[in-house]
Amino acid sequence: MTLKRFAQDYSTFGGWLGAMPRTSRYAREIIRKHERFPTLSLNELRNLRISDHDLSQVAWEALSPAQRRERMLAADVARGMRKGERLGPALARTGARKSDVLRHQGQTAYKSRNYWRINKSDRIQMEMRFYERGVGHITIVTTNSKDRSTVGKYFAAVKKAVNKGDTSALNRFKGRSIVDANGVRHEFETDLDELYAIEDAQEEPEFLEIYQDGQG
Predict the structure, then answer these.
(1) How much is the average pLDDT of 157-167?
(2) Cross-strand bridge partners of residue 179
Protein backbone atom coordinates (compact mmCIF):
# COMPACT_ATOMS: atom_id res chain seq x y z
CA MET A 1 0.00 0.00 0.00
CA THR A 2 1.38 3.41 -0.98
CA LEU A 3 1.74 5.79 1.92
CA LYS A 4 0.24 9.24 1.64
CA ARG A 5 2.85 11.97 1.03
CA PHE A 6 3.14 14.12 4.14
CA ALA A 7 3.81 17.44 2.36
CA GLN A 8 4.73 18.81 -1.04
CA ASP A 9 8.42 19.03 -0.16
CA TYR A 10 8.60 16.10 2.27
CA SER A 11 7.40 12.57 1.68
CA THR A 12 7.24 11.71 5.40
CA PHE A 13 6.65 13.44 8.70
CA GLY A 14 10.18 12.44 9.76
CA GLY A 15 11.60 14.22 6.74
CA TRP A 16 9.65 17.37 7.56
CA LEU A 17 10.62 17.16 11.24
CA GLY A 18 14.34 16.74 10.55
CA ALA A 19 14.66 19.37 7.83
CA MET A 20 15.06 22.29 10.24
CA PRO A 21 14.55 23.22 13.91
CA ARG A 22 10.86 22.83 14.83
CA THR A 23 10.60 25.14 17.83
CA SER A 24 8.01 27.62 16.62
CA ARG A 25 4.47 27.61 18.01
CA TYR A 26 3.18 26.48 14.62
CA ALA A 27 5.63 23.57 14.42
CA ARG A 28 4.90 22.45 18.00
CA GLU A 29 1.18 22.44 17.18
CA ILE A 30 1.76 20.28 14.08
CA ILE A 31 3.88 17.86 16.14
CA ARG A 32 1.19 17.57 18.83
CA LYS A 33 -1.49 16.92 16.22
CA HIS A 34 0.66 14.35 14.41
CA GLU A 35 1.09 12.43 17.67
CA ARG A 36 -2.69 11.95 17.80
CA PHE A 37 -3.34 11.66 14.04
CA PRO A 38 -0.22 10.12 12.47
CA THR A 39 -1.87 9.28 9.12
CA LEU A 40 -2.82 12.86 8.23
CA SER A 41 -0.85 15.09 5.86
CA LEU A 42 0.68 18.42 6.81
CA ASN A 43 -2.18 20.32 5.18
CA GLU A 44 -4.77 18.18 6.98
CA LEU A 45 -3.01 18.70 10.32
CA ARG A 46 -2.78 22.44 9.68
CA ASN A 47 -6.55 22.68 9.24
CA LEU A 48 -7.47 20.16 11.92
CA ARG A 49 -9.33 21.21 15.06
CA ILE A 50 -8.59 18.61 17.74
CA SER A 51 -11.85 19.47 19.48
CA ASP A 52 -13.72 18.10 16.46
CA HIS A 53 -12.14 14.69 17.12
CA ASP A 54 -12.37 14.72 20.92
CA LEU A 55 -15.16 12.51 22.25
CA SER A 56 -14.20 12.80 25.92
CA GLN A 57 -16.93 15.33 26.74
CA VAL A 58 -19.63 13.76 24.59
CA ALA A 59 -22.41 12.46 26.84
CA TRP A 60 -22.75 8.70 27.16
CA GLU A 61 -26.29 8.81 25.80
CA ALA A 62 -25.07 10.57 22.63
CA LEU A 63 -22.56 7.84 21.78
CA SER A 64 -23.28 5.06 19.32
CA PRO A 65 -23.06 1.44 20.57
CA ALA A 66 -19.64 1.12 18.93
CA GLN A 67 -18.42 4.34 20.55
CA ARG A 68 -19.64 3.16 23.95
CA ARG A 69 -17.57 0.01 23.55
CA GLU A 70 -14.58 2.15 22.55
CA ARG A 71 -15.03 4.33 25.62
CA MET A 72 -15.13 1.34 27.95
CA LEU A 73 -11.92 -0.01 26.43
CA ALA A 74 -10.34 3.46 26.64
CA ALA A 75 -11.28 3.61 30.31
CA ASP A 76 -9.66 0.20 30.85
CA VAL A 77 -6.48 1.46 29.18
CA ALA A 78 -6.52 4.63 31.31
CA ARG A 79 -7.03 2.56 34.44
CA GLY A 80 -3.97 0.45 33.62
CA MET A 81 -1.85 3.50 32.84
CA ARG A 82 -2.80 5.12 36.15
CA LYS A 83 -1.36 2.01 37.79
CA GLY A 84 1.92 2.38 35.87
CA GLU A 85 1.23 0.44 32.67
CA ARG A 86 2.59 1.87 29.42
CA LEU A 87 0.22 2.64 26.55
CA GLY A 88 1.53 -0.09 24.24
CA PRO A 89 1.06 -2.97 26.69
CA ALA A 90 -2.31 -1.54 27.75
CA LEU A 91 -3.48 -1.53 24.14
CA ALA A 92 -2.27 -5.11 23.68
CA ARG A 93 -4.02 -6.24 26.87
CA THR A 94 -7.37 -4.68 26.05
CA GLY A 95 -7.43 -4.86 22.26
CA ALA A 96 -8.19 -1.14 22.13
CA ARG A 97 -6.92 1.06 19.30
CA LYS A 98 -4.64 3.97 20.12
CA SER A 99 -6.71 6.40 18.04
CA ASP A 100 -9.88 5.42 19.92
CA VAL A 101 -8.20 5.79 23.31
CA LEU A 102 -6.95 9.27 22.44
CA ARG A 103 -10.35 10.32 21.08
CA HIS A 104 -12.20 9.21 24.20
CA GLN A 105 -9.61 10.35 26.74
CA GLY A 106 -9.18 13.75 25.09
CA GLN A 107 -6.92 16.14 26.95
CA THR A 108 -6.54 13.72 29.86
CA ALA A 109 -4.02 11.92 27.62
CA TYR A 110 -0.77 13.73 26.95
CA LYS A 111 2.78 12.95 25.85
CA SER A 112 5.72 13.63 28.13
CA ARG A 113 9.33 12.51 27.58
CA ASN A 114 8.23 10.42 24.60
CA TYR A 115 5.65 8.49 26.62
CA TRP A 116 1.88 8.81 26.62
CA ARG A 117 0.50 9.50 30.08
CA ILE A 118 -2.95 9.87 31.63
CA ASN A 119 -4.07 12.46 34.16
CA LYS A 120 -4.88 11.10 37.60
CA SER A 121 -8.57 11.88 37.14
CA ASP A 122 -11.10 12.70 34.45
CA ARG A 123 -14.66 13.93 33.99
CA ILE A 124 -15.75 11.42 31.36
CA GLN A 125 -19.20 9.83 31.42
CA MET A 126 -19.60 6.07 31.44
CA GLU A 127 -22.41 3.68 32.28
CA MET A 128 -21.94 1.28 35.18
CA ARG A 129 -24.06 -1.27 36.98
CA PHE A 130 -25.20 -0.33 40.48
CA TYR A 131 -27.06 -1.82 43.45
CA GLU A 132 -29.34 0.90 44.79
CA ARG A 133 -30.84 0.84 48.27
CA GLY A 134 -34.52 -0.07 48.13
CA VAL A 135 -34.44 -0.45 44.33
CA GLY A 136 -32.04 -3.23 43.42
CA HIS A 137 -29.92 -3.79 40.33
CA ILE A 138 -29.84 -0.78 37.99
CA THR A 139 -27.40 1.01 35.68
CA ILE A 140 -26.27 4.61 36.14
CA VAL A 141 -24.15 6.96 34.05
CA THR A 142 -21.22 8.12 36.16
CA THR A 143 -19.56 11.45 35.38
CA ASN A 144 -15.94 11.07 36.50
CA SER A 145 -13.16 8.63 37.34
CA LYS A 146 -13.53 9.19 41.10
CA ASP A 147 -17.12 7.92 41.05
CA ARG A 148 -16.17 5.00 38.80
CA SER A 149 -13.49 4.03 41.28
CA THR A 150 -15.95 4.32 44.18
CA VAL A 151 -18.47 2.06 42.42
CA GLY A 152 -15.67 -0.41 41.67
CA LYS A 153 -14.62 -0.51 45.31
CA TYR A 154 -18.24 -0.98 46.32
CA PHE A 155 -18.63 -4.05 44.11
CA ALA A 156 -15.38 -5.47 45.43
CA ALA A 157 -16.85 -5.03 48.94
CA VAL A 158 -20.13 -6.65 47.84
CA LYS A 159 -18.27 -9.63 46.41
CA LYS A 160 -16.31 -10.04 49.64
CA ALA A 161 -19.47 -9.80 51.75
CA VAL A 162 -21.56 -12.18 49.64
CA ASN A 163 -18.85 -14.78 49.06
CA LYS A 164 -17.10 -14.70 52.42
CA GLY A 165 -19.56 -13.07 54.79
CA ASP A 166 -17.05 -10.30 55.54
CA THR A 167 -18.93 -6.99 55.66
CA SER A 168 -16.07 -4.84 56.97
CA ALA A 169 -15.47 -3.13 53.62
CA LEU A 170 -19.18 -3.00 52.77
CA ASN A 171 -20.00 -1.13 55.98
CA ARG A 172 -17.97 1.84 54.73
CA PHE A 173 -20.65 2.47 52.10
CA LYS A 174 -23.57 2.81 54.52
CA GLY A 175 -25.35 6.10 53.85
CA ARG A 176 -23.13 6.93 50.90
CA SER A 177 -24.41 7.69 47.42
CA ILE A 178 -23.45 8.58 43.84
CA VAL A 179 -24.94 11.40 41.76
CA ASP A 180 -25.46 10.34 38.14
CA ALA A 181 -25.18 12.35 34.91
CA ASN A 182 -28.80 13.52 35.30
CA GLY A 183 -28.20 14.85 38.81
CA VAL A 184 -30.09 11.97 40.47
CA ARG A 185 -28.64 10.63 43.72
CA HIS A 186 -28.39 6.85 44.20
CA GLU A 187 -27.64 5.33 47.61
CA PHE A 188 -25.55 2.17 47.87
CA GLU A 189 -27.34 -0.97 49.01
CA THR A 190 -25.48 -2.35 52.04
CA ASP A 191 -28.02 -4.71 53.60
CA LEU A 192 -26.52 -8.18 53.23
CA ASP A 193 -29.89 -9.94 52.94
CA GLU A 194 -30.88 -7.57 50.14
CA LEU A 195 -27.58 -8.15 48.39
CA TYR A 196 -28.08 -11.91 48.53
CA ALA A 197 -31.54 -11.44 47.01
CA ILE A 198 -30.17 -9.21 44.22
CA GLU A 199 -27.41 -11.69 43.44
CA ASP A 200 -29.79 -14.66 43.45
CA ALA A 201 -32.15 -12.85 41.08
CA GLN A 202 -29.42 -12.73 38.45
CA GLU A 203 -28.91 -15.91 36.48
CA GLU A 204 -25.38 -14.94 35.54
CA PRO A 205 -23.99 -12.25 37.87
CA GLU A 206 -21.33 -10.18 36.14
CA PHE A 207 -19.11 -7.62 37.78
CA LEU A 208 -18.01 -4.85 35.44
CA GLU A 209 -14.48 -5.99 34.62
CA ILE A 210 -12.94 -2.59 34.17
CA TYR A 211 -13.50 -1.40 37.74
CA GLN A 212 -14.27 -4.49 39.79
CA ASP A 213 -10.93 -4.32 41.62
CA GLY A 214 -11.67 -0.82 42.88
CA GLN A 215 -9.31 1.14 40.67
CA GLY A 216 -10.28 4.36 38.86
Answers:
(1) 95
(2) 185
